[in-house]
Recover the amino acids of this structure.
């Protein structure tokens, strides 16, 4: 668990949603880390199935089909590392990936799904809560939000949970290649205004597109900083 006011520095923002470029050295360090071997190591459907704590962990959370698996694939430069699907609820466990023996990427079950049983949703929710509350190696939660739609009620619920569990949180807007300039100018301040009510969340969003590659080098640099400094 970490304090969003401490640890790795955030990139400098010049205006809402606009990230000042990382140094060439930071971008290269990110490229090198994410070019390392990355492989699936563990799947846990319940708390008693979690792997032993080891590497610093980055958790990827988001509504079903927000693009979690696509973002993991884009970051690592692989097409099939994390399974992608158009069917909500296909990620039914916490999937752990080892990145170069330096960082663990954790793909969490999507929330906001509608095509699975209430009992299964309840089970996943309890597992997620337990993971967030008790995982000492968890360094950051990335909450992925579809840039076309902004923060939904279920996103607000996960942000509240992350506040309660004191997990430092970074909101990442996905699919920004599908968001026009005018819509960006509205959407980014709108989302960042919501984040002011969440003490565990950093106040600025990061922008990404798994298709166009927007923001991927910067996000790699950001996560590499976490891997280096915890």
């Amino acid at each position: 668990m970490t304090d969003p006011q401490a640890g790795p520095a955030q990139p400098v923002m010049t205006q809402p949603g606009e990230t000042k470029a990382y140094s060439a050295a930071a971008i290269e360090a990110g490229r090198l880390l994410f070019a390392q071997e990355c492989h699936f190591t563990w799947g846990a459907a319940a708390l008693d199935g979690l792997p032993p704590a080891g590497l610093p962990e980055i958790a990827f959370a988001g509504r079903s089909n927000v693009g979690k698996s696509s973002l993991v694939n884009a970051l690592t430069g692989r097409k099939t590392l994390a399974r992608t699907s158009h069917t909500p609820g296909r990620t039914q466990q916490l999937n752990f990936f080892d990145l170069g023996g330096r960082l663990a990427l954790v793909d969490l079950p999507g929330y906001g799904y509608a095509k699975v049983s209430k009992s299964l949703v309840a089970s996943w929710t309890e597992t997620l809560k337990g993971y967030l509350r008790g995982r000492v190696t968890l360094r950051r939660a990335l909450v992925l939000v579809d840039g076309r739609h902004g923060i939904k009620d279920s996103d607000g619920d996960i942000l509240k949970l992350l506040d309660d569990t004191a997990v430092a949180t970074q909101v990442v807007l996905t699919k920004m290649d599908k968001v026009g300039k005018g819509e960006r100018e509205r959407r980014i301040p709108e989302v960042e205004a919501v984040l002011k009510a969440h003490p565990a969340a950093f106040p600025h969003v990061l922008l990404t597109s798994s298709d166009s590659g927007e923001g991927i080098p910067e996000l790699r640099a950001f996560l590499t900083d976490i891997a280096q400094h915890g």
Observations:
- The beta strands are 13-15, 18-19, 38-44, 57-62, 94-99, 103-107, 138-146, 169-174, 206-207.
- DSSP finds six helices and nine strands in the chain.
